[in-house]
Each structure stands twice: as structure tokens, then as C-alpha cells.
Design goal:
TIM Barrel, 3-stranded parallel beta sheet, 15 helices, 39% helix, disordered N terminus
């Protein structure tokens, strides 16, 4: 491919991104959720009935959302930060992403990202009324020698910040730590977080530059097993990352090292996007990450120790075979946990109830009622949607147990 042709493709891609940004800004602007998420009066009687049906199992035994993102730009000395690439049109792809996230978080002033985003989330969460939410810290990118790679750090949310936010809002929140295993102080930080009450560690290996199968992870795995801290790791392709080398870090088979060390593992999104190397195949062929995830789940060595986290399965791009399979595999239902991947439920283009209706997951009436619910509260929408979708042929649904604490 000639250099000139490559530049032409890059220019075309940039123009498409700019156009996409305009379309996205318009769609989100005209379809923004209500500012009064606790008020269900605008809902039709049928939509209110659908809400009550979805929530009734959790009135006495609350639901748990294991996947909530937090963002910040340093307001009030929080220590949180976002890579400058996401804040500038000099990097259109990243900036388009940030604009979508900014709108979904409810941020009008980037300098007040912490207070504005947390205020919006807490209103939505308390309006749901039956759930507790896991707030994610997000560690920086580190090199294998333990040095910080600031330029490669997409965003950073300190453990201390989410701990403080969770303490202040303990009625609806709890903190999930994030610790890069290559950090020189990784074990010490885990011990500090565990003493503060943390029982889950969050990784996004593709973005954080970590290989879950790297022996450098072993000291942290040993400490996690000793302290009873589980790992919730993204698995599968990460679309915010372009490097093929780091995409392989999302291969779910690479989580075997943690499992073999005695760590309980939650596989994010059931690894429902992209392909990875089949590490069990001498020829190292690429296969769907979702199939590699199912291999982990079906391995008798890991029963009761590896779980599937179902956030994003109802999104466009994941609601085909992964959603149908996880609904149909009732033998795995007791090993599923729910997550919303907030703020993504507040980005309407990611959720197409019409497509779910056409595929047989929803009736036409349910799709219409869910659209109403989204307009009031996207967090409530996410929970009701997952409680409503059913397998197109068998009618199987996700059980209430998938929405409770493990």
C-alpha cells in the first residue's frame, strides 16, 4: 500500500469520525434521559408493570451491579486524570469517544467532572432503589520493568478516590480497586485496599499493558488468593485500543494463570468480542474469544472459580451469538454476574431495542416500554432489559441469582 494511499485512507477515516461525532451529538442531545430519574409518572402503565416485574425479586434481597466506571480530571485533588488525547480534536477518534462518555456521564464542565458525574450517577442509582453498585478504580499503564507509562495511560482513577466516594455513599456503592501487577508496590497496595474493605480487583489488560499470563503477576495472584480478593478482568477485544499486541492480552485463556493460583475470576463481557490465539492449539489459530471463554467455563477444574460477567451482552455487536448462547446455557446461569458497564447504558446508539425485538429477544410491546424506561433512567433500563430478554426459541431468561452478590 502506497504512503499516499494510506494518508488518503486516514483522511477519509477522520472525516467519517467527524461526521459520526456530529450524528452522535445530535442523537444523544435529542434522546437524553430525564433529569428526574426517580419520577416514573411519565411511564405508561405497561412500562411501570415491566419495571415492577423486573425489580420484585430484589425488594428484600438487593441486586448488585458489578461494573460501574468512574471518571475524573483532578477536581478537588481527586488524583484522577484523562489523557490529553481524549480532550483534543487533534486526536479525533479518541475525542469522539470522550464526547460520548462526557454526555453519558452528565458532564457539562470537564473541570468539574468528578462532582457532576458522581451527582448524576448517584441520582440514577438511588432512583433504581434495589441495587448496590461496584465503583471501579482504574490504574495507570506500566511497563514490564515496573515503570509508569504516562503517555500510554488513557485515564486514571485512584483507589483512594473510589474508596472515599463509596464510603460517602455506602447505601448504594462499594469500591473496587485497580492495581497493575507490574507495579513495584502492587502487593502492598492490595493489602491496603483489602484492609479498607476491597474484595474485587478490576483489570483491563488491553488498555493497561498487562499480560494476565505473565509470571510477573504471580506475587499479586498469591496475595489475592491469600486475602480472598477476586479478579474482574475485561476479556476479549477492547475497541479503544489499536495495538494488536495488547489486544492479545484480552485472550480469556490467559486468565488461567490467576485461576491456577487460586484466584476467583470474573470474565468481563463473557469475552464476547474479537478473536484470540487458541493457546491449546499447536498451530495457534485465531478463534472467537467467546469460544475460549466457554472453554474456561466448561473446564471442570474451574467450576465454582470462574464466572461470566454479562455487561454489554445486550449491546449492538454482542447481542447475537453471545447473548443467545448465555441465555440458552442454563447450566451456566448460576455462574453469571451482572454489570451495567455504566455510563454505556446512557449512550442510546449502543442499545437497539428494535434489533432485539426483530431477533426475538423482546416483544414489540416490551421494546416500546423499554424505550420509555431508558428516557427516564438508563441504569434502570439496563437492569430491566437484562431481566426481560429471553432466548428466541427456548424462552430462557437470566435468573435472579445472576443479579445478586457473589
Amino acid at each position: 500500500m502506497s504512503r499516499r494511499f494510506r494518508w488518503s485512507l486516514a483522511l477519509i477515516g477522520t472525516l467519517l469520525l467527524l461526521g459520526s461525532a456530529a450524528v452522535l451529538a445530535f442523537r444523544v442531545a435529542v434522546g437524553s434521559p430525564s433529569d428526574t430519574p426517580e419520577d416514573l409518572a411519565p411511564l405508561s402503565p405497561g412500562a411501570r408493570t415491566l419495571v415492577e416485574s423486573a425489580l420484585s425479586d430484589f425488594r428484600a434481597d438487593p441486586a448488585v451491579d458489578h461494573h460501574v466506571h468512574v471518571v475524573g480530571t483532578g477536581e478537588g485533588g481527586s488524583g484522577a486524570r484523562v489523557n490529553a488525547r481524549f480532550l483534543s480534536w487533534l486526536h479525533p477518534r479518541q475525542h469522539v469517544q470522550f464526547l460520548a462518555y462526557e454526555r453519558a456521564f452528565g458532564i457539562a464542565d470537564v473541570a468539574r467532572a468528578e462532582s457532576e458525574s458522581s451527582a448524576r450517577f448517584l441520582r440514577l442509582a438511588r432512583a433504581v432503589g434495589v441495587s448496590r453498585y461496584a465503583l471501579f478504580a482504574f490504574d495507570a499503564h506500566y511497563a514490564p520493568d515496573g515503570s509508569l507509562h504516562e503517555a500510554e495511560t488513557e485515564y486514571y482513577v485512584p483507589n483512594e478516590y473510589v474508596e472515599r466516594l463509596a464510603r460517602q455513599n455506602a447505601d448504594v456503592c462499594f469500591a473496587v480497586a485497580s492495581i497493575h501487577p507490574y507495579r513495584p508496590d502492587a502487593v502492598q497496595e492490595l493489602e491496603r485496599c483489602a484492609a479498607a474493605g476491597t474484595r474485587i480487583l478490576k483489570w483491563l489488560p488491553n488498555a493497561m499493558g498487562m499480560d494476565p499470563a505473565d509470571p510477573r503477576c504471580d506475587p499479586l495472584y498469591a496475595a489475592m488468593a491469600r486475602l480472598g480478593v477476586a479478579l474482574l478482568s475485561h476479556a476479549g477485544e477492547e475497541q479503544a485500543i489499536e495495538s494488536e499486541a495488547t489486544q492479545e492480552y484480552g485472550n480469556p485463556l490467559r486468565l488461567r494463570r490467576a485461576l491456577d493460583a487460586g484466584v476467583r475470576v470474573y470474565v468481563g463481557h463473557c469475552a464476547s468480542r474479537g478473536q484470540g490465539l487458541d493457546l491449546d492449539d499447536p498451530e495457534r489459530k485465531h478463534v472467537d474469544n467467546f469460544d475460549l471463554f466457554l472453554r474456561l467455563m466448561d473446564d471442570p477444574r474451574y467450576v465454582g472459580r470462574v464466572f461470566g460477567e454479562i455487561s454489554a451482552l445486550t449491546q449492538v455487536g454482542r447481542s447475537g451469538r453471545p447473548l443467545a448462547t448465555m441465555l440458552a446455557r442454563t447450566d451456566l446461569h448460576e455462574r453469571l454476574v451482572n454489570g451495567s458497564d455504566y455510563p454505556l447504558p446512557a449512550i442510546d446508539v449502543l442499545f437497539q431495542t428494535g434489533s432485539l425485538r426483530d431477533a426475538g429477544y423482546l416483544t414489540a410491546e416490551e421494546a416500546r416500554q423499554l424505550d420509555e424506561i431508558w428516557s427516564v433512567n438508563p441504569l434502570l433500563f439496563d437492569l430491566v432489559l437484562k431481566r426481560t430478554v429471553k432466548h428466541p426459541e427456548t424462552g430462557a431468561r437470566f435468573p435472579a441469582s445472576a443479579f445478586r452478590a457473589r
